[in-house]
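Support request from a user on the community tier.

User writes: "When I paste my structure tokens into the form, the page sometimes reloads and wipes my input. The last time it worked, I copied everything first. Here is what I submitted, just in case something in the input itself triggers the reload:"
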């Protein structure tokens, strides 16, 4: 149950242009959907563990960033948005795009198999970060393409999202 916004999420008195709400920090994760399907058929617990590993690693790597520190001060009010990538190729393309756009993240690689399983971003202000995901199947090659646009001062607009709050 959501109990309101704590001081850690009110990083500044800067308000979002549209709604006048204080900044809310969100950690975005992108998890591979195909891991739970044949030929992988990983159990739910193993797939969830991948997201946990990626989220923990991203928080640790960026622990000195002010947004991460603020996010960790209010454990009961953490917000995560979990998105899905259909396969390994799509996840890798997203990781490359994040790298090119200088978006702080961690691509989790399951060991010892060296399988990319999940991407976790460090916490970002929801009001200033937009990740639009458009997955489309290209008819000529059958390849899935991922198009990601990062815009400032916009709301998250994405399909197939699950927002988890304490």
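"...and here is what came back when it finally went through:"
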């Amino acid at each position: 149950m959501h109990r309101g916004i704590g001081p850690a999420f009110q990083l500044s008195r800067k308000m979002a242009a549209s709604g006048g709400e204080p900044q809310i920090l969100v950690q975005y994760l992108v998890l591979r959907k195909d891991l739970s399907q044949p030929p992988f058929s990983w159990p739910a617990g193993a797939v969830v563990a991948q997201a946990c590993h990626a989220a923990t690693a991203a928080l640790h790597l960026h622990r000195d960033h002010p947004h991460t520190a603020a996010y960790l001060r209010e454990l009961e009010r953490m917000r995560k948005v979990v998105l899905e990538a259909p396969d390994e190729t799509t996840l890798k393309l997203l990781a490359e795009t994040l790298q090119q756009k200088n978006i702080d993240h961690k691509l989790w690689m399951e060991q010892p198999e060296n399988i990319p399983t999940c991407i976790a971003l460090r916490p970002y202000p929801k009001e200033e970060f937009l990740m639009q995901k458009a997955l489309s199947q290209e008819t000529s090659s059958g390849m899935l393409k991922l198009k990601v646009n990062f815009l400032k001062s916009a709301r998250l607009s994405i399909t197939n999202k699950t927002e988890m709050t304490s």
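Agent notes: The reload is a front-end session timeout and is unrelated to the input. The mean pLDDT is 74. The CA atoms of residues 23 and 39 lie 42 Å apart. Escalated to web team.
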